[in-house]
Amino acid sequence: MLEQKRISVIGGGQMCEAIFSGAVASGVVRPEMVTITDLNEERLVDLATRYGFATLPNDPQNEGAKEAAQQGDILVLAIKPQFARAVLEALRDELRPDQLILSIMGGVTLDFLEGFFPENPVVRVMPNTPMLVRKGVAGIAAGKNAQQEHCDLVKELFDLVGISYLLPERLIDPLTSISGCGPAFAYLMIEAMADGGVENGLPREMAIQLAAQTLTGSAEMVLQTGRHPAALKDSVCSPGGSTIAGVHALEDGGFRAAAINAVTKSCERMIEVGKKA
């Protein structure tokens, strides 16, 4: 059971906060069961103060990471991919074979991770920042030593902060290019729609709220009705009306192609990052 597991997290960045603040808010994970280590001591103080996490300062030799890793039943690797090799080298001989390794490092493959931890169950997860408000999405890919019980444990964690999908590793990068990068695309859409409202006389704060709530409601329509987005779009576009005029303007500006290209370029960059680990 997840609530009985001690969780050690290497890296106290934004994604760490999004996942574990949401998990704690769910009531299943207790903050004292989560130990976070990071080079930034101010960040650790902030996380401990706001959420009650146990913290442990790290250092350039990764002594703090070693100590934290030894404490956990689950070791979460939440560091930047460019630092992966140095940290994994430091932890290579510190773990018990039964410890579950959960990596949220973008682009870092299961093969790469298992090269350092050949006996451990390893699971690769790509989460996203809306987990902070428990509306996240995660893709989960299991390594060769990961059993169903390990996958169930990881899925239990990420279902606390949104929804999760078990999938082959080859689909992790495409998933991430939508769910991981997509929030930035959505924020751009909200900002742009709000700018349009301001240009036409709406107060800025109201325009932002209107745009954000409209995207939220539209997304819920897709999720709850199960209808194709194109069908929902068509249901809003009255003949000769203002909505189809706006859709025409978006198509004329290359909106659809730009969105497809954004996802594709993000996916390509994820693959490039993984090759540099």
SSE arrangement:
Elements: E1 7-10, H1 14-25, E2 34-38, H2 41-51, E3 54-57, H3 63-71, E4 74-77, H4 84-91, E5 100-103, H5 110-116, E6 122-126, E7 136-142, H6 148-159, E8 162-166, H7 172-179, H8 182-199, H9 204-225, H10 229-236, H11 242-252, H12 255-275
Helix pairs in contact: 7-12, 8-9
In short:
This protein has 277 residues and is α/β, with parallel strands linked by helices.
Structural commentary:
The chain has 277 residues and is α/β, with parallel strands linked by helices. The model has no long low-confidence stretch (mean pLDDT 94). The chain has helices at residues 14-25, 41-51, 63-71, 84-91, 110-116, 148-159, 172-179, 182-199, 204-225, 229-236, 242-252, 255-275; strands at residues 7-10, 34-38, 54-57, 74-77, 100-103, 122-126, 136-142, 162-166. It contains twelve helices and eight strands. Helix 7 (172-179) packs across helix 12 and helix 8 crosses helix 9. An eight-stranded mixed beta sheet has the order 3-2-1-4-5-6-7-8, sandwiched between helices. Helix content is 53%, strand content 14%. Helix 6 links the parallel strand 7 and strand 8.
In round numbers, the mean pLDDT is 94
The count of β-strands is 8
Shape: elongated
Structural class label: alpha/beta
**Main β-sheet: number of strands, strand sense, barrel status?**
8 strands, mixed
Strand proportion: 5-15%
State Rg: 21 Å
Low-confidence stretches: none
